[in-house]
UniProtKB/TrEMBL annotation:
Location of the Histidine kinase/HSP90-like ATPase domain: 329-420
Protein's name in the database: histidine kinase
InterPro entries according to UniProt: HATPase_C_sf, HATPase_dom, Sensor_HK_TwoCompSys, Sig_transdc_His_kin_sub3_dim/P, Sig_transdc_His_kinase_ChrS
UniProt source species: Corynebacterium vitaeruminis DSM 20294
SUPFAM superfamilies: ATPase domain of HSP90 chaperone/DNA topoisomerase II/histidine kinase (SSF55874)
Length: 427
């Protein structure tokens, strides 16, 4: 399994996206508040000055209602899950019509009182937001002209040059703020898209790691079954065939020895299977490594004797091996390597002599299995056993070397550092 951290958006990135979204919402709400404040202030100022005619109050009320209805509708649409091209086109037409009504009501109010000129500032945002850029610029210029020069025609005594410069400055400022708002909106979308992509990548990576873990576990279980139950059953099958032959010949003494071997192998395989089911443990290493290897050697020797194919099989131990000095995964793997090597010898090598040597050195443990059998070409070897041996040893940063040639015997050398404590050797 890969221990590297999965690709994911950091809390800082998520917080930044949320902060930008909150700023966008704040700006939108602020725009509506400014519009409501300017409209209400103009009405109050006119009423206080005695200019609050029924036409002015009615037009202001209608403008407030139309504005509120339009913004409410637009807000609901923004949160709608439906966004198709036809709906977008219809929205653009309806929004343009709504804007035309708002502007018409505003022009009417400006005609009634100069105090409504300052609604130009929030209206610039609406024009730029709703209309295409080119048309919007023309619309903003026209709105400024109305705010600057309509009072000069209808409210001449109260008009001066400030009524031109003031709306112009406000309009330019509103345009700058609007395009900053748009840039911020694009930044929010970019951050949101990036966060979504990172979350998607994280989910895909998690799924890939989960699948890789399942495949690794499957491979591990396959090796474990091959090296325990499968080998034991293979031995039972071979000895039982020999026992059947002796039964037919009436060789009861040899038959009895073969049945004892079958019973011992079946008991051993059953114990292995129970340990495997219980906790997926490998060989029983409550004993020392040399003792475990001696049992493997003894079982192999007994099986070959029961088959009528005696094998001169010896175990040599070099150095004082302290069980506390050898990590349990290393001991477990050495037993499995010995099992597989001896299994290959009796199945394929047709050897008459095998020497197993276990050695403890300064910083590593070695296991050599040498036979005088028929040998083979390692470059063309196939099967599951040797690749499984290499995988087990590689999990512990060890090495496996096989030297063999046809009719020249085989030598398997395995070396594992004593610092290896990987639990992956369990499989």
């Amino acid at each position: 399994m890969n221990d590297s951290a999965p690709l994911a958006p950091t809390p800082t990135e998520i917080d930044a996206t949320r902060a930008l979204s909150r700023i966008m919402i704040f700006l939108r709400v602020s725009l509506h508040i400014v519009f409501a404040f300017l409209l209400g202030f103009a009405v109050v100022q006119n009423v206080a000055a005695g200019n609050g005619s029924w036409r002015l109050i009615t037009a202001a009320g209608v403008l407030a209602g139309v504005y509120m209805a339009g913004t409410t509708w637009e807000n609901r649409r923004a949160h709608s899950l439906v966004a198709v091209e036809d709906t977008d086109r219809r929205w653009a037409i309806l929004a343009a019509c709504w804007l035309a009504v708002v502007l018409a009501l505003w022009v009417g109010l400006v005609a009634l009182s100069m105090d409504f000129v300052w609604l130009l500032f929030p209206l610039v945002f609406l024009i730029l937001h709703i209309l295409p850029t080119g048309v919007a610029i023309v619309g903003v210029a026209a709105a400024w002209a109305v705010a600057a020069f309509l009072p000069a025609w209808l409210h001449t005594p109260s008009w001066n040059v400030a009524n031109v410069v003031g709306p112009l400055i406000g309009t330019v400022f509103a345009i700058g703020v609007y395009f900053t708002y748009r840039a911020l909106g694009r930044e929010v979308q970019t951050h949101a898209l990036l966060t979504q992509q990172l979350l998607s990548a994280q989910q895909q990576l998690a799924m890939s790691e989960h699948q890789a873990g399942r495949m690794e576990e499957r491979e591990r279980l396959s090796r474990e079954i091959h090296d325990t139950v499968a080998q034991g059953l293979s031995s039972i099958v071979l000895v039982s065939r020999a026992a059947r032959s002796n039964l037919q010949k009436g060789n009861l003494e040899e038959l009895s020895a073969q049945l004892d071997t079958i019973n011992e192998q079946a008991s051993t395989s059953l114990a292995e299977a129970r340990r495997f089911v219980r906790d997926l443990a490998s060989p029983d290493l409550t004993q020392s490594l040399p003792e475990a290897l001696e049992k493997v050697v003894a079982r192999t020797r007994a099986r070959q004797g029961a088959l009528g194919e005696p094998l001169d099989l010896a175990l040599n131990v070099v150095g004082e091996i302290d069980p506390a000095a050898v990590p349990e995964p290393v001991s477990r793997t050495m037993v499995r390597v010995a099992q597989e090597a001896l299994n290959n010898v009796v199945k394929h090598a047709h050897a008459s002599k095998v020497v197993v040597t276990l050695g403890l050195w300064d910083d590593q443990l070695s296991l050599d299995v040498v036979d005088n059998g028929s040998g083979f070409d390692p470059a063309t070897a196939s099967g599951y056993g040797l690749p499984g041996v290499r995988a087990r040893v590689a999990d512990l940063a060890g090495t496996v070397t096989i030297e063999s040639a046809p009719e020249s015997g085989t030598a398997l050398a395995c070396s594992i550092p004593l610092t290896s404590r990987s639990t992956s050797a369990e499989g």
